[in-house]
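Throughout this review, each integer encodes one residue's backbone shape. One record appears below.

===
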Amino acid sequence: MIIKTNGIELFYEKIGKGKPLIFLHGNGEDHHTFDSLTKALKEYYTCYLVDSRNHGSSSQNQPLHYEDMADDIYDFITILDLENPIVFGFSDGAITAMILSINHPMLLHKMILAGGSLDPYGVKKSFFKMMEAEYEKSKNPFIELMLKEPSISSTDLHQIKCPTLILAGENDLIKYSHTKKIHQGILNSEMIIVQGHDHESYILNSDYLAEIIIKFA
């Protein structure tokens, strides 16, 4: 399905029945990241799987900033008149979710942040250097976004009012200290470090993650 939000078109799929649960994917991905997870959750939630701007089947060649992406999702929620929505954001989707909740503290019922970061230096040094080298070769706008944004402070995080679950893999490319900083900044939050997993592997392990989501949300 297509919806016009914030001056662009967003593609999304709607699956299941129950409380509204919006999924926001990572950089360079699309809504199919969550295919197996939503199969495990569709009996419990109405799942909205959104392609972010410049990704998947949504509008292409648009300005690419996390603030714009957060505004897109605000319009998405408002236009569809979703009451007490839950947002699950993975990686860049977690950044978008944080900015959305900072800008609109009363909008979300609950929020789940998986592998999010507050600034470009939240990733491990080796990964940051790899991104820099790749950008020099490709000038890829997706990589440019990760090298320049976001810039979320602890003061910003204090604006988030909804209960928040923070997830990261034991072997995540996000620094543990950075994930802990997010947890400390969001007052009504809890943190789970998923043992034996990396940045994305636990997202694809749908049965395990589905249990965590159902218990929290």
User: Anything to note?
Assistant: The longest strand covers residues 8-16. The mean pLDDT is 96. The longest helix spans residues 66-79. The chain has nine helices and eight strands.
